[in-house]
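User: I'm preparing a small set of examples for a lab meeting where we compare how different chains pack in three dimensions. I only have the primary sequence for this one, and I'd like the structure in token form so I can line it up with the others. Please keep the answer compact; I'll paste it straight into my notes.
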Amino acid sequence: MVSDRNSEKHERLVFASIVYPTKSSETNALLLADSIRTFAGSLSGNPILYFTPEFGKQLSSTAKDRLISLNVKMTPFKIDLETLQFPLAADVLAAAVAESAVYSQTDLLAWLGTNTVVIQEPGAFLLQKEKNLGYRPVHHTLIGSRYDKAIDEFWTLVYRHCKVPQDRIFPMKTHIDGTRIRPYFNAGMLITRPRELLLQKWSNTFFDLYQKLPFQEFYKKDELYKIFVHQALLSGAILSNFETDELAELPPTYNYPLHLHTEDVTIHRPSVMEEVVTFRHESFYQDEEWTKKMPAKQQLRQWLAERIPK
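Assistant: Understood. Below is the structure token output for the 310-residue chain.
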């Protein structure tokens, strides 16, 4: 938390994410921070805040030193073991902590999945004044609700508990397969106005509901519900708090899923990553052949290779 909010410089936009004390998370966090500093243009010098769950294990000294050199502020936050062990629950909590930390110090907070790499200046993050959320749809449907079919029991449950007005349920298209679905927002890229307290409302909603018996019944049916319930409840929180005209869908060049490139059937499929503004990944560097497989030009592949621990 910020101890003296009035003493801090007011920023137009702050970047924030979560980093875990694991090799892959640290590598991802370093790539994200370095890519912002290198490629984010007029936003490259903006504050970057990383929040670390405090559960007995610390970030490596190598990662800490490198993040400090990139002018990244690291803040630990307390978390219990039960929360830490539930898929992505720590991310939900960290997002709310981040929002609270910058509440009076920035107009916009870019909450990003740590597995994000910025390739160009993300100018669309600077939302128009009438917009309160910049978002991308989910990558593909999975547990999402197709717009051309009757709403299923899971999403009925989400909408009921989140008190979602019927007139706010609009169609959006998934990033990779272009399926028309009911609103289902990707939790790995949220451009918010901290004054609206969306991330706190998401956290409150999630922790109020995720362990309730009706939701647990879905976890038993399919593990995907457990993995993505945080994202479904985010969608409920967004729809219950914002009118449709307060939402801004970011272009498909944002939050592009590198790991799903071969599955992309849309007209927006890039031939190389240099065509996108930001991409997401699933630790591509763990494949020893990644430099040959990545759809990118030599300069970007070389930049990435120089920053990945051997």
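A couple of notes for your slides: The radius of gyration is 19 Å. Confidence is low (pLDDT under 50) at residues 1-7.

User: Perfect, thanks.
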